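Notes from hallway chat w/ T.B., transcribed later so I don't forget. T.B. wanted the structure written out for a chain they're using in a teaching module, and asked if we could keep both sequence and structure tokens in one place. Agreed to drop them here.
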Amino acid sequence: MSNELTTTALGTPSINDAALALFTPLEADMTALAAKYHNVAYDMTTTKGAKAARDARLELRESGRFAIQRLRDQTKGQLNDCKTVIETEATRLIAIVEPAEVAIDKQIKAHEQKLADEKAAKEKAEAERVQKHTEAIATIAGYSDKARGLPVERIEAGIAYVRGIDVSAAVFEEFADRAAAEKAATIGRLEQMAADRRSADAAEAQRQENERVAAELAAQQRKLDEQAAELARQRQALAPAPQAAPVAEPVAEPVAAPAAAPAPAPGAAARPAPAAMPQPAARAAAGAAPATEVDTDASVSLGQIKTLIAPLSIDAAGLEQLGFPPVATDKSKRLYRACDLPAIRDAMVQHLLQVDLGAKHADA
């Protein structure tokens, strides 16, 4: 066992060394006692030899092992009693130095917390910066989805807006290349959508125009059919009535032919032609016929009127004398209102009824 004592940081022996120092003087005694009885043999057959052996054992126990055990137990008891004393003294001494330690510890921890907060703030700011650029790029990409189904004017306005987005490094920093690529892709999608929308609008406009033209043609066809039906009705009305079968008459006695009428005097004036019927009068004369609902905007030409009254004939001057001047001209054609055909017919009949056939024959 070493006899050297270790010291604490304060320059005093340690408790362990102080306790072990109690056992250090006994080392020589134990060595001498062990050497005294080393390899000793006793004659246990004799009383003297047996007693000597018992005395030797007693000395080895009392002066050797038992002595060490008693010192050990005594030292341990003393050390156990020292625990309370040591704890109390240590607490007192700690109370002297601890406030200074706590103050410095607070400074250190406050600084460490500040560094941790600054680090967390930087990490948060960096995450927000990256998220801001990422969301801005996603917003650019989303404009094509928002434009679906919009009119071409709004799509073109969206293209102009996207073209104006600044994707330089001054705005998007290290994300500038990614933002520029997404901007170009979005413009491409929007331009394709605008082209598709223009094609669809043109097709829809053509479809509507086709429907409009078809409706107009159908309306015109209906009007032509109505006019044709009205002309057929008027032709039938102007057709001469069927002649009755001739009836046999009794033979009359021959009579002398009447004397020829004297020729008119050379100075006698010729009979004037029937005066032209004023247009209001002609229409009034025609008003006796029942009214028929016809298109007042429809027109017929002079040639069509001649076809209706064939084998009779009339010219524009004759119609004007009856009170029906042309309402319009189409190149060389003179046009009349189709709704006036019944009045024209009645005016012609009225004119024929006023003709003095006897005077005409005499003039001939």
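Follow-up for T.B.: DSSP finds eleven helices and three strands in the chain. Might be a good example for the class.
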